[in-house]
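Quick start: read one record
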Amino acid sequence: MVNMIAVLIPTFKTGNYFEDCVRSLAAQTLSKDDFHVYVALNGPESPYLSYLEKTFNKSQLNYSVFHLPEPGVSAARNFLIEKSCEPYICFVDDDDFLDPLYLESLLVASDEKTIGLANVKAFEGDIRLSRLNYIGESYSNLSYYESSILKTRKYFSSPWAKLIHRSIVGETTFDQRLSKGEDALFMAKLSKRVGGVRKASPEVVYYVRERPGSASRRRTKKMDEVKRFFYLELCYLKLLFSSGYAKAFIITRMIATFLQLLKSFK
């Protein structure tokens, strides 16, 4: 039997929070025979590789762990896209975790042209994982609604909290020249092949752990922000004047990039 979903997790200097992520995957209502977890440890190998193996050995999950000497989340994701073969791709960050219904319900919501979206909840510090021991109601009783990319842009701008068919990803890769803003650019590039999005019911949640030391929350130099701004705007302009892309969504990303630049100077 062929797995349906490739769960792709990049990790750098993995911390204990990763156990919550693995625990949430082990608690999925979707059969473990239907998904495979791929992890790319980028950067230092020791002691993190052995920690990852020990964590997975307790889980009974189907998994593969790879080590990439050079750090970089984009390179790690690109590597895992190439290494995996399942028809659906699910991006997960190593410090986040999923509701038990996550994979099963998004698999129903997605197809070759439609991206399934989950609700997103952010938190800081620790959170009680009591729901991970709960097997929820059957996915057939859940409700979904379809929408455009523009109406769901706050969900669409990142690769996580969704299930994406490999035919939508195609040859698209994450821009390895960027350490910030690469997620939204990747999704903008995908918009050409997205027929629609379908959002699952509110109880299907992707939990985002906001850590002070995470890459997304690190402050960067003002000159680096300026360079990033012009590079991203140029990339978006190329998409904007190319046919087939979601132009309204791309315009919102250009505005958001400008606002982020202004925020960096406050």
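The CA atoms of residues 42 and 72 lie 7 Å apart.
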